[in-house]
Amino acid sequence: MPRLVLAEDQTMLREALAALLGLESDIEIVGTAANGREAHELVRRHDPDVVVTDIEMPDMTGLELAGLLQRSGVRARVLIVTTFDRPGYLRRALEAGVAGFILKDGPSTNLADAVRRVAAGERVIAPELAERAWSEVDPLNDAERRLLRLAEAGLESPAMAEATGLARGTVRNYLHSAISKLGAGNRIEAARLAREKGWL
To answer: Can you give the residue ranges of the HTH luxR-type domain (predicted)?
Structure first.
């Protein structure tokens, strides 16, 4: 019987997913969390087989959670359930060691089936994303991605330098590189384009 932790920041949706999975006699939910940090604590406490998580959550995203679990060497396998049908997200998820990636707008039966398959050691990827994921390569490095997130949040270069511990000139160089790679006119446009592609 697969034992799982469920992480979803929207309360109503989290409860709905828990109720849906609770109908399955062969799946046990050992904990639910509103963000990745809570989910990580539950994984450490309960040692589940599967972590079902959204991508965008406060405090720690699903992708950050997956990366942390991968580095920690825990046995729990991660299944992303999201509305974001962007190839960039799938590529980053796979790089973070995620075992499954399905979309919320699919049939409800897909979720329980995906949990079982991931628990059994399979990889489950939404077929509509699998091929597209490798058609567009994410050109950004981690530093550029982090700075574009800060630009998206409205920070100016001095505040970015303070937040990241980088020199102002280094911040300027990274931003210029990101803007050039994305063919954008400025940092805000670059952040918007990267977000649309799923690269942030």
So the answer is: 133-198
